[in-house]
Write a structure and sequence with these properties.
Strand 1 and strand 2 form a beta hairpin. The chain has a domain of about 45 residues. Strands 2-1-3 form a three-stranded antiparallel β-sheet, with no helix packed on it. The radius of gyration is 20 Å and the shape is flat. The termini are far apart. It contains one helix and three strands. It is an alpha+beta fold and about 90 residues long. Bound molecules: zinc ion (ZN). Zinc ion (ZN) binds next to loops.
């Protein structure tokens, strides 16, 4: 067993990181208006005039959705990406 450093044990650190991750995901994520579930990253959610509806609840709605979108990670659009530099003439 590892010796606690700075007064925090390995188990406490794991719990703190898990809570931080769950809170960050819940704060920036999409929630299904029917079941309250957080759709998985990459899952498609549909709009029927109200809030987003997950793929599992899609069957409970008739007709075509007014729109659909893919759930992205909370860092989508914020993360640093490598860009191509303009070529010298
Ligand atoms: Zn749902």
């Amino acid at each position: 067993m590892l010796r606690p450093i700075l007064g925090i044990s390995e188990a406490d650190l794991e719990r703190a990181l898990l809570r931080k991750g769950v809170s960050a995901r819940a704060a920036g994520g999409v929630v299904c208006s029917d079941c309250g579930r957080h759709p998985l990253i990459g899952e498609r959610v549909h709009h029927f005039g109200g809030g987003p509806v997950c793929a599992l609840c899609r069957g409970g709605h008739t007709g075509e959705p007014s729109g659909s979108e893919i759930v992205h990670h909370v860092e989508h659009g914020v993360s640093v990406r490598r860009r191509e530099l303009p070529r010298a003439a």
